[in-house]
Amino acid sequence: MSRRAYYEDLKRLALEKRAEHRVQTGCFGLSEVRVIYKEEGIRIDHWPLPRKVKALYMCDDGDCSVALQRALPYEPKLFALIHELKHHYRDKAALGTGVIQDWPRAPLAARRCSRKRSAVVGAASSMVCSSRSSKTNSMAFLFTGVVGSFGPPRGEPGDRRDVPQFSNFLKLGNHFGQEAREHPVCPRAYPRVAKSRSLHSAQRSALRLVVL
Amino acid sequence: MTTLYEHIGHKIRELRTTYPKGTLSQEALAEKLKVASNTVSRWETGKYKPTPKDLDSLARFFAVSITTFFPDLETDDPRVAALTSATGGLEKKDFEEVIRYAQFRKARRAMENAKRPKKKA
Prior knowledge:
heterodimer; A: mainly alpha; 2 domains; 51% helix; 8% strand; globular; B: mainly alpha; 434 Repressor (Amino-terminal Domain); 63% helix; 0% strand
């Protein structure tokens, strides 16, 4: 299966599962993920995993569970749980052979290209493609590739990348434009995001818009 | 015939009494595990049923595998090999934690099967 076919297949699966579990992008959080896990019969165990392993999916004899680092912040925890859900839907059958791994990283040239600022474009789907082909993880990509691309280069006067700013969220909202309006943050979540002045909120909103 | 929980109780007592740094009292073990002092005694007699998490704490304290507490849980080498392949790149200590989790799952399943009432023929 080619790389493109693999992702198309995953996209189809994701849409199917979103409809099945009535997922609404704006209102999606840990409690909603826990409901999905319950419906799928997957247990979540907090486990002292090594730092480099955020979560771990295991399934044998119909007993499926995910070991999760307790100390993870909200967004990485959400991201890790959704990532493991992909293994549940897609890789369960192949688990016994021990050959599970995510699709190999893009060649170096593609990575270089995606790390250029010009590669950051408006459509959420392009953002996801760029994020996937870059070497960075999603969080780092959102910081450096998206939030960082609106301001002056790192270290120069006016660089506010490391300063928690509510305006970063606004910039993201402006950046996504139409797509953001198509997937508005739900009224329940919006006041919380709007009141918060931390960059973490910008990340949270960005993840809701881009990844979910 | 001893039940699973009696077997677990015997094993806890055995590990406690053969503890390398001299015999460990029930109170001392309870203190280490941060449980009530009579809980260890009741685990050993099979009056209380330890949870899989309790067994994990005990296994970590005595530096043994959680499967030690179960009469017929052997190491599943092919599955461990598969796990090794899937988690390639982890350091030895990190990999041990992954194995520990796999064994915890196995132990939990064994305890749940023991709790489940057998169907009448």
